[in-house]
Amino acid sequence: MSDRFSFGFPAHGRHLAAVREWCRLLLQNHLPPERLDGLLLALSEACANTIKYGKPSQMEIEVRRPRGRAEIRILRFCRTGEVHCIKSRRLKDVKPGGLGMRFIAQSVDDMTYAPGGDGSLTLVLTQRCKEGRGGD
Description:
Blueprint: E1 3-10, H1 16-27, H2 33-54, E2 58-65, E3 69-79, H3 100-107, E4 110-115, E5 120-128
Antiparallel strand pairs: 1-2, 2-3, 3-5, 4-5
């Protein structure tokens, strides 16, 4: 069985530090510090992208702590039809913008999209408690 916590916040960058701290408190005894830092970096970047490009008025986050891993879900990350537009830029094409998805993918063990049931997709960021495959 896993613990599950949900919360919402106004979609504005000024709230991201508090969101990171709240998630840190929930996960600090579940993940080693360096693995937690990677997950929180991915969370910050994903929320910033959602705020900038999705322009929601409210954001919803769900934190889960199943055995051997931690998951952070960003509900309504994008519309189902928009997922094909979300790409990371190649490193040789570095310009302002476009590297966020690369940072997210490199900071966590797994990054997937799950159907939200309302025409949206949920971004699921997963970090295992230990490096490598399998986790525990």
